[in-house]
Structure formats: structure tokens, C-alpha cells
Amino acid sequence: MPLFHPFRKARRKRILESQAIPDETWAWALSEHRIFHRLGPGDRARLRELATVFLGEKRFDPLGGPELPEDLKVSIAAQAVLPLLGLEEGLDWYEDFSTIMVTEREYGVRRKDLDEAGVVHEYDDEFAGEAFELGPVALSKADVEASGWGDGYNVVIHEMAHKLDARNGAYDGSPPLREGQSAKAWQEALGSAYEDLRSRLAQPKSGKPRRGKLRRPAVPRLDPYAAEGPDEFFAVVCEYFFERPELLRSEYPDVYVQLVIFFGRDPSLGGT
What we know:
- It is a single chain.
- The two termini are 28 Å apart.
- Helix 3 (41-57) crosses helix 4 (70-81).
- The radius of gyration is 20 Å and the shape is globular.
- By secondary structure, the chain is an alpha/beta fold.
- The protein is built from 10 helices and 8 strands.
- The model is unreliable at 120-125 and 208-217 (pLDDT under 50).
- The protein has one domain (5-202, 215-269): Collagenase (Catalytic Domain) (3-Layer(aba) Sandwich), CATH 3.40.390.
């Protein structure tokens, strides 16, 4: 444990005692976000504690906009800590950042990519969120408001997954695993699923008639952005794990099993 862990524990106790989320705001957050509807009373109480401390420890910085409303902050906090419910280390997973930067909408970024031939390509892109290495997290307000509806999209969980991933020192799709969890099984499950997704996305979109029917390649139901790299694959499957667990389990059951082990819970079954 870190040297100042006792002081951190005392500080968090003070936050819980003095900075409680108002009952009305918390009830709104639980009802507004479908991803919380399956949680049992025990999980909801734990989620509220984690969200309260998250709000007390993190600073929200609105970029180019007015002060953020409290319900938006609570929405971000509740979704950010959902992946921590079954992780013993809790909020210590997020100790490498203290600031949440919030933009009104997606923001432009100039990107450089190196292709297989060694050629550098520059292009403009738009980000809904970003997790900076050993730094803050950026989120688009519009995308936060589009998250938590149970449709597979969740920018908050996506960026928090990157923070989990980076705890081993690199954005590589391999966070520090639970004690006793097989790294080999993790790599085989997520690696083969990632390659399968890339292969399926690379198939031609049109088929040719066979026996009077048009046969088409099986199109994956996951966000194609998951094929951008192992790090993005991990972040996207985390979104689906908490947003649409049954879909992820049907697409990549081995990945689902590994995430159940890692997160210490099965979202498809609800909770305590």
C-alpha cells in the first residue's frame, strides 16, 4: 500500500461525512442511466460511496463553457466508478489523475499516424474524450449525456478503461490483472477477438448470390473503433460489458469471461 494510505482513508471518510450527494440528485442519476437499473441495493450504496469520494477528490474544469451543473458531475462520477464496484483497490485505480476537463462538444485534434510502409499521415480528427497518460481526462458534455443508456456507447467508461489499462505503464489493452488471473488466457481471449474483429471489418461489404440468396459476411455488432488497436479494443469492450453485456457475451464469450474475472462481477446478472 502507498505510504500515505492511512491519510487517504481518513480524507475519504471526511468526504463521505461532509460532502454527501443529495438524495434527489442521486435518485435522478440512478433512474436516468439504464446501466444502473440492474444494480441491487448493496451495489447502489457502494456506487454512491465511490461516486461521492470521486467528486471530492477530482476537480471538474469546464473548457470554453459555463460552470458545470451538479447533476452532470454526479452523472460522470457514477459512471466513472461503476467499473470499480468489484475491484478491491477501488478509487486507487484512478490515483494518477485529479482533473476532469469537460468540453461542450467533440473537439478537434491534429493526428499523426505511421503506416506499415513507414509513411507519416497527418489528418484532423474529433474526440469525444481522451485519457492523457499520467494526466487528466477530457470528456465531451454532449457525449457524456449520450452515455449510460444501455446502447453500448459510454464515453466515461471508455476513458476510465484507458486509465485502468495504463496502470501497468502502457496503453496496450492489458491492465494489471486480478491476483491469480491468467495473463495467458487474457491475451489469448482479447488478442484473438481483436484480430477476428479486424478480419471481419476488412471483409467486403457485399456478397454474391448463392442458391438464390444474397450471402453477406457476418458483420460485427461492436463499434468498429475497437479495431483501432488493442488499447481501443479493451476500452470499447468495457463499454459493452457494462452497457450491453449480453451482446458482448454473444459476440466474444471468451472476452466476456475474462472481464467477469477482472471486474469481479457479471453485469448481466445484476448485483447484490
